[in-house]
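Subject line: Sequence and fold of a protein, written as structure tokens
Enclosed: The protein record, placed directly beneath this head.
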Amino acid sequence: MKFNQLPPTVMEVCQAFVDGLEAILDVNLHGIYMHGASVFSDSGPIQDIDCHVILAGPLSSRNKDAILQLQRDIAGRFPPLGGELDAYFIRYEDALKTGPPAHQLQSGIRDEAWALHCAHVRGGRYITLYGPPPADTFPAHSWDAISAALEHELAFIEQNLQYPDYCVLNMCRIMFSVQERNVVVSKFSSGKWASDRFPVWKPLIDAAVASYLGTKTHDEAELLKNQAAAFIEFGKRRIREELQRA
């Protein structure tokens, strides 16, 4: 997908973000690369915007304050999507390494899903919002590093069962990734894969998809509420079994 193929509401948020960062960072801005559900054509309505901002050098305190203000301004100008702009700011020299890079805007945070994000970019699932082609900036990772990132994603699911639709579809994605040794997949595609492979869970997965599309019924909401935790446990067992066979 290319930038001009995005929905207009997404394009305007991204353009405002790019313009603002160019003005704030000047030559310290190396590149901005969008990834995540928004670059998959089968992911339904875009609910958030994920991207990495690659910096040539460190951020000054003035830079940080200006970027935070920019994000507040975008949230106010383009609701609700402008408030769902999730950007990791990382240094170019850190991006070249395989270890999780530190977030330059938020102290103490690292991109624990770096191996997965790199795989998506290297697999062509990205949009360049600013800067040169990103392939050399997002290094290849070993399967061990990818597995560690998937374990982190699994732990995040277990901590966020209050969002059952997210948890169900992301569990499908992790199961697919482990089974097929391929992490470059959308939530919806992996949901279809899991529905075909484990038909007993198809109603629950369909309910999660309907929730994302904004069409879920009362019965589907109850299904998600009552069965999501059991599906997560099922998925964990499947993942452990697959990893033991590997």
User: Anything to note?
Assistant: The two ends are 34 Å apart (CA to CA). The chain has a mean pLDDT of 94.
